[in-house]
User: What shape does this take?
Amino acid sequence: MSIVVTVALVALLALALDMLCIRFARRKTILSYAMVTIGVGLIYRGGMQIIVGRDIYFPPPLGVISDIKVDNVFIPSQYIWVIISLLTISGFLSYLFLRTRLGKAMRAVSQSPRAAQLCGIEPRFMSALAFTLAGVNASIAGVLIAPIGGAFYENGLAFSLKGFAAAILGGFGSPIGAVIGGLLIGLIESLSAGYLSSGYKDVTSLTILLGLLLVWPSGLLGRVEARRV
Amino acid sequence: MTVFSPAQGYRRDFAGIIALGIALVLLGLFVSKPYHLTLLTYSGIYAVAALGMFVLFGYAGQISIGQGAFVGIGAYASALLVMRVGLPPIVALIASAAASGLFGFVVSRPLLRLTTNYLAMATLAFGVICSVLFSQATSITGGIDPGIFGVPPFEIFSFQFVRPQQKYWLVAMFVGASMFVTINLVHSRFGRALKALSGSEVATAGLGVDVVRYKVLAFTMAASMAGLSGSLLAFVQSSFSASAFTVGLSLDILIMVVVGSLANPWGALFGALFVTIVPTFLETFELYKALIFGVIITIAVIFMPDGLIRGVKDIARNLLKKRRQA
Assistant: This one.
């Protein structure tokens, strides 16, 4: 129950970001939208800091599923939840974007809002929907990670940067690519923390992000999105 | 609306520099409380970094959320050059601004191939990487705790800047000089090229401007001014740690420019004062800082894309117009 409320609340916050802030931006450029998200991100983080304080919380694991132990391999139930959610969500998103009219409409708006509008698609509705979906996904990720890594008001920045890195690695416009990208980034990060030094963990994944942006902006499974100058 | 010819604009800004010089001298002479002087000193230090950011973001339209890294490089470079190599402070200051600029030059070539939100993300990642390196490379930087302490005061010809008043004059000199350089730059071929390429890179390239070179120059200049500001910070504060050069600092510098003005270098001064002084009004500001700055930056970007001064001016003008019509 608390999870449903959490996800709904975060979805609402994401919707507010779109409908109350981005929509009213005077200058309709991607850069100004990016600045608005940075500003609103600060507001949300600052708000969390005031509401819940600066402590790290460890909510209890979701439970229900029992831990798995085969020989020496031990998989806690929370990790199984992560895998199940990953499969469900990526399956759902792939279906949504590749098989339904709604997904097609969203992709159309992302390519050209004006042309999509001419075809009878409301770009503002699609944008609100996209933000809500992103909020739902992000909050599910938060729900899953909190019992493992703890909930802290400043966690967001690192996660959003790594999420961006994962999306680029996989190539935008491909949910499966994003999943593969995310898995790769997580794997490389954990390996580097183990073999190099855990203090430099964030450096590894962010260096990957930088390197990808510079060398291979289209990612593993995507088309070219970043314009070269 | 009055239209200024370029020459008129320069004359106006030049008069502004003289006014700024007079204001800085008057403040130095008549502000006697050390606390107020210290606030002004810190505003000045950040104003230098904000002016560099203004050239890069306000004029050339290239966002960077990694300026804090260059401030850090400037601060560490001058502290190490003075304390370990034993260079005189003035040489260390120039060298660290140059080193920061050189570093900016090196990273700018690949970074500036990106645009808009990709550039924002890449510079943000760059800033986070640098701040992690600052806090982890403890053998060089001292990390977060204890950091670097005991940086000797700045001195020119064996005159030492020790007391708050002396430190104020030191920073005031550099603020005046940075403003002078920025104004002259904005009103030059270089400034006009930057302004043009922020409008349309393709059109600017079509006019025969080497777009990449100008973008790289703007980034290098912003980096070296951030380095200069970091160097001043090291000499004024004499002890600092890696916790000073986080993404928070990069965001602060960005906010200074966004709140001040994207079209007018004087806004950077206002922004630096604003961001430094507003926190002192609230006792428990640390807790509310993120929220308040978030609200400010959001409102500024949404409703006043040309900065707070311009936004308030426009609102006032609209109100007057309405009253006249009524």
About this structure: The two ends of chain A are 50 Å apart (CA to CA). Chain A is about 70% helix and 5% strand. Chain A touches chain B through 46 residues (CB under 8 Å). Strands of chain A lie at 68-70, 73-75.
